[in-house]
Amino acid sequence: MIVQFPDFYPDELVYSLLARYYVRSGSPSHAHVAGTLFMRNSTHLETRFVCPYNPDAFAMITRNQTMEDVVLKHTMFPYYARFAEKDRRDKAFLSLVQMETQRYELLLIPKKKERLRARLRFCPICAKEDREKYGETYWHREHQIIDIGICPKHHCRLISREVRKCTLTPAEELAQEDTPILSDNGIERKVADYIAEVFRADIDFSSDIDSGKFLLSCLEYTKYLSARGQRRNISLLLSDFTDFYNGLPNNTLTKMWQFERIFIGKIRNVYEICLLALFLGIPASDLTGMKLPDQTQTEKFDSRVLQLHRQGISCAAITEQTKASYNTVFAIIRKSR
pTM for the whole thing? Predict the structure, then answer.
């Protein structure tokens, strides 16, 4: 029988909730408490997602909210599924809600980062504030965003601790009174703030807008696209991007091919997309609520050329006005005939 089961704290991982229950239960061993929580005692513990819980544990975990809300508010799903294709995102969400094990095939988790799941991180300042407010600290989701190394709230360096395999380890046990180390890196702070805002935003499950197409639409009428919007100046984009993120400890976008793969939807990781969006000046709210323009730059350009042509303006004059090549203008007019 489950008694003394705690309530979720804000932004708390499910793993953290269960670890706090383990302490409260007074169980003599982890194996003993595992029998009251999991479908199988040998269940592989998930620090960032969910496990197959038995009916009693499921009832406790969902007593104040649905399992759908648990997945959205107390797991890392919003980070690793944010820009996945709609079908893939929906399947990953259903897998988590049903406590299945397919999420690693469906979520966008780079393999080299997946190795870090045996570690959890905390902010010393958050831990101190938690103890003052709740009498204990806990494992926060935002601190587990592996691509940022500082707390989005305090800009304090996050401290990593290894959690014992197959054991529920509460943050209170590992988050000692470590001395806070604040980041004085302005761009690192800005990136952490931006990614955290994206992470906190609701996911629109009805949207099937491709992140690459959206980001490409945000290049329109910039120096990174030709007048008609058909040619991308990726070398200039990379140069300006590199200057913008000079001093960022973890800039993973350093090659032109990476930008091309983002624009065609082959790279959908939150970190890379957020770095590009922040550089382009896209508000986090626009990135999480992506909308495409009614017409592309190319469509608008072609319409303008044809309108000028119908007014009797020559190809040479249209070329001068639009800053496009003569061949481009001539081809647009010829195609319309």
Answer: 0.91
Q: If DSSP codes are grouped into helix, strand and coil, which group holds residue 122?
A: strand
| Cα atoms in the Cβ-side hemisphere of radius 13 Å centred on 159 | 17
Q: Could you give phi then psi for residue 324, rounded to 5 degrees?
A: -100, 175
Element (H, E) at 234: helix 234-244
The number of C-alpha atoms within 13 Å of 232 and in the hemisphere containing its C-beta is: 18
Among 306, 307, 299, 312, smallest CA distance to 331 is for 306
CATH code for residues 297-336: 1.10.10
Residue 117 has a pLDDT of 59
In the chain, where are the structural domains located? 14-174, 209-288, 297-336
**What's the pLDDT tens digit per position in 127-144?**
999 999 999 999 999 999
C-beta neighbour count of 44 within 10 angstroms: 11
- Residue 332, classified by CB atoms within 10 Å of its CB into exposed (0-12), middle (13-18) or buried (19+), is buried
